[in-house]
C-alpha cells in the first residue's frame, strides 16, 4: 500500500473509534445529519398536511357543487309548476302561478292585467306574427294535453286568448264552452307555405 492510502485508512479508523475524540467538524457533520433527518421527517409531514388540505378542499368543492346543482334543479322545478303542485296551496285570484312555456317562444306574447268585472288577474296570451302566419296554441295542465286553439277566422295571423285567474291560483281557459285550468302553453307557428 502506498503511504497516502495508509494515512487515509488510519485517519478513518481514528475518526470512528470510541476512544478517540471526534473532531469539531465531525460534530457539525453529525448534527447536520440529524438536522437533515428531522428536516426530512418534517417535509414528509408537511407534504402529508398539504395533501390533506388539498384533498379536503376538493371534497368541500365537490359538496358545494352538488348542493348548488340541487338548488338549481329545485328552482327549475318551481318554474315548471308540475312537481310543486302539492306545495302551492290555496291562493286567491289576484295572483296566479306563472305559465310554463313549451317549445319556441319567439311568437308568444303575454299581457298581464286585471278583470274589471271580478278584480281577478287576467292574462292575455297571443300566439303568431303580425302577418303571414298560421298558428295553433297547445294547452296543458300538469303535463296533460288539454287540446288546441285555432285561429278564429281566415286571414288571421294571431291567436288571442284571455285567461282569468281562478281561486286556486291557476289560469282558466274557456274554449268552446269548456273551462279548464292550465299551467303550460305552446305556440306553434307555420311560416309561409307550411301546413300545420
TrEMBL record:
Sequence intervals crossing the membrane: 53-75
Bias (Polar residues) ranges: 1-10
Superkingdom assignment: Eukaryota
Region (Disordered): 1-30
Entry keywords, A to Z: Membrane, Transmembrane, Transmembrane helix
Protein name: Uncharacterized protein
Organism: Ditylenchus destructor
Taxon lineage: Eukaryota, Metazoa, Ecdysozoa, Nematoda, Chromadorea
Amino acid at each position: 500500500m502506498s503511504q497516502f492510502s495508509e494515512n487515509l485508512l488510519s485517519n478513518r479508523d481514528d475518526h470512528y473509534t470510541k476512544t478517540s475524540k471526534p473532531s469539531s467538524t465531525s460534530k457539525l457533520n453529525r448534527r447536520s445529519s440529524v438536522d437533515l433527518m428531522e428536516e426530512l421527517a418534517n417535509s414528509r409531514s408537511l407534504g402529508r398536511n398539504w395533501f390533506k388540505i388539498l384533498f379536503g378542499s376538493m371534497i368541500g368543492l365537490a359538496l358545494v357543487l352538488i348542493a348548488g346543482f340541487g338548488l338549481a334543479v329545485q328552482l327549475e322545478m318551481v318554474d315548471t309548476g308540475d312537481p310543486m303542485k302539492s306545495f302551492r296551496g290555496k291562493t286567491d285570484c289576484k295572483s296566479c302561478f306563472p305559465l310554463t312555456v313549451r317549445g319556441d317562444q319567439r311568437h308568444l306574447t303575454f299581457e298581464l292585467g286585471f278583470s274589471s268585472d271580478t278584480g281577478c288577474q287576467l292574462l292575455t296570451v297571443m300566439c303568431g306574427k303580425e302577418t303571414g302566419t298560421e298558428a295553433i296554441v297547445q294547452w296543458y295542465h300538469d303535463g296533460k294535453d288539454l287540446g288546441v286553439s285555432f285561429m278564429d277566422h281566415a286571414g288571421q295571423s294571431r291567436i288571442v286568448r284571455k285567461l282569468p285567474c281562478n281561486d286556486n291560483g291557476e289560469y282558466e281557459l274557456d274554449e268552446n264552452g269548456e273551462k279548464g285550468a292550465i299551467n303550460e302553453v305552446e305556440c306553434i307557428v307555420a311560416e309561409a307555405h307550411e301546413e300545420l
